[in-house]
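Folding problem:
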Amino acid sequence: MTGLRWDAEGLWLGLKPLLPSLSVEVVAQCPSTNTELLDRARRQPGRRADDFDPCLLVAEQQTLGRGRLGREWKSAAGASLTFSLSLPLSPRDWSGLSLAVGLALAEALDQAQDAPPRLWLKWPNDLWLLDAPGRGRKLGGILIETVPLGRRRLVVVGVGLNVLPERFDGLTSGLACLQEVWPDASAPAALHRLAAPLVRALLAFEREGFAPLAERFGRRDLLRGRPVRLHAPGATDPALDGVADGVGADAALCLRQADGTVQRVVSGEVSVRLVPDDEAVGGGRAC
């Protein structure tokens, strides 16, 4: 261990009223917290959903952390917060789960009510720190994976946040860290601030879905009104350009193209990039 004080027992006591059977584990190193929790579930075939207790697994350092679309997520002990939460869920519609998670994290970390938000959400699963309108840097990411459990599914929500200043090569957007908005932030303090709002958001999503959150998400929608370019990894079709026109109640990204038509993007298996202003196409208005 690095000497960080996680207070796992205090965390467990705080979450117990929400998830009575939850376990909390903190390890010094792990290849991937998501992979570990998924592997545990797969090693126990035939078990019912009710047999799987929720687990919050925290790794001070991930050696093989993964982001969406198989991208590597770099993690340094003490400089990053990396954890995964697994629990059985059975929402009527899974659409928008990553947006609901991102919104819960952003609101928990950026608590100023009387000022424009500094933490924004890039559809479908990134947290950004806004430097200026339309310009920002990536603060963290969300990776959600599931495995079947009878008529339910076990969902594993992985979260990675940059806490301390670091420099990584190859990041086109630049890198933000939590201490820029919360000077005294540490990985354990961030986890204690995030854990309960995350659990409450997951339980609310199971009951109500994404629709009740659409307006609040819109307040932090990084892409809205901005020219974007969508790529599907491995696709032979050309990239799709347009102006992001907000997110619908079904969590679909609305993309207004140059001819005025609106393309609704519902799959998270695309890469979304902001387009420089001098390459912008079309014009946006709320859809």
Remarks:
- The longest helix spans residues 187-208.
- The first strand starts at residue 23 and ends at 30.
- Residues 278-287 have pLDDT under 50 and may be disordered.
